[in-house]
């Protein structure tokens, strides 16, 4: 297992959560949520975060229904966001199934801090943590 640093994003039209993790440990930590205007973030803020953390790879959660099928309204937009990340920053980007990540993130946050921990930004960043840790698990399963 290599020691790559991986940054994950939980794409949303109003907010985009982010997390950072280390491939060698398979763990991730929440970073920050970026406000988005109809799915478009402030790219300068994302660039600052990428420069600060210098990830080797970016992972973007791919929203699907429970059967793994694309969701008409959001799946293509998450793919577009992933393509823009790659185009702007030249880093490799992988999409990862994010089924149930928000529900899992809410559950984890509630366990840690009750209702107060369930702010939108916290949930989006914890969702990015769930996505990234699930991506790490998929590496070990293969």
Automatic annotation (TrEMBL):
UniProt cross-references to CDD domains, sorted A to Z: YqgF
Taxonomic superkingdom: Bacteria
Location in or out of the cell: Cytoplasm
EC number: 3.1.-.-
Primary site of residence: cytoplasm
Keywords: Cytoplasm, Hydrolase, Nuclease, Ribosome biogenesis
Pfam families named in the record: RuvX
Claim: Nuclease is one of the keywords in the record: yes
The YqgF/RNase H-like domain, residue ranges: 4-105
UniProt keyword annotation of Amino-acid biosynthesis present: no
PANTHER family per record: POLYNUCLEOTIDYL TRANSFERASE, RIBONUCLEASE H-LIKE SUPERFAMILY PROTEIN (PTHR33317)
HAMAP family: Nuclease_YqgF (MF_00651)
Function: Could be a nuclease involved in processing of the 5'-end of pre-16S rRNA.
Family assignment from sequence similarity: Belongs to the YqgF HJR family.
Name the UniProt record assigns to this protein: Putative pre-16S rRNA nuclease
